Amino acid sequence: MSTNGNGWINNRSLESATAHGEEDPLLGRDGDDEKHPSRDGTASAFAVGGLIWTIIVVQAVVRWILSDDFGAPKIDKTDEIPNWNLVMLRIFEASSVGVLLAHVWFCILLPVYPGLRQFRLTAERGQFSLDGRHVLGGLLAVFADGFLNGQGYIFHFNQYSVNIGVWSHFMPFHNPQTSSKYAESILWGMYVLHPFTVSSCNMLIDDRPMYIYFCAGFGIIGCGFATKIRNRFPQLTNAGVFTLVWIIEYVIDFSIENIVIRLTRAYGFGVTYAPLTLWAGTWYQFPIYESAFVATLGCCFTAMRLKAYDAGMSPIERGYHHWPRAMHGTIRTFAVIGFCAACVIVFYHLPLTWFGMMGKSVADMPSYMAAL
Predict the structure, then answer these.
(1) pTM score of the predicted model
(2) How many H-runs (helices) and E-runs (strands) does the chain carry?
């Protein structure tokens, strides 16, 4: 067992099974020798999930566009939104679009089409990187937002946000008694900004979009923090490093989300679990478990990225070589999409919905945050 330059464990070579009193590993060898070819089918399993999730998203979007739910709901102006909050909301939306375009440009287009750097033909071979696949996975994972209010309106959106309604009615397990007419933002809904600078896709970006930072951004941020922590405290175990990364990401998310909520009123937590809620009953109430879910997601993607440093690919892509060569890229891409969707749903939407449905802390929301 060896380690790379950053002190991370390199698992390319397995420890001798006899060191544990066993002749063979539990499920047989997973080496690369001719007698024992790799049996790893992780990529296939996640790719199936990614394909299923893509089908779910496509059918929901098509049915939504053809339905009466498509289109922005009328704004309830019973309560007036302060002008400065509205200005901050528009700045928030514009910044979010810029962040998305930057991630698509630097994480997808430039790696795939290297000639775009100089806007001329080049012999350099392009490649679709793990960061690019995480960005694509994040873009598809945003549709999991339809689960947020699938059983009850617990996550409130501002009707003044640029929106065209929401697709939640066409997602699996949606409660027909729950309203599907609310203002899911198409500009910031997939984003929450993180205004600090970190290395991202070989460039510097000042903001981190929500589902992009869930899937790509926090993985990139986490790798940066993990490397710095490892270099500063080489005696720490990997578990200790990840614990510190989790704490840092928790603090970052908690700080930024509360700033965004109060400055823009873009969204709010309508119903939360009272014992774990700060400022309970106010329109800006905040459940402390929200940041815990975000930090956990960040650590998941950080782990995948660090593993990719060691093995040249993330664990979720392993086994793609069992497929025909022409399908290698497709299988890896769908595997990452499946992983992104699974993580967002399992570690964020399901627990957040569960706490919301059992919660008793109801926020005093203004009229323009309500569902119709």
Answers:
(1) 0.81
(2) 10, 10
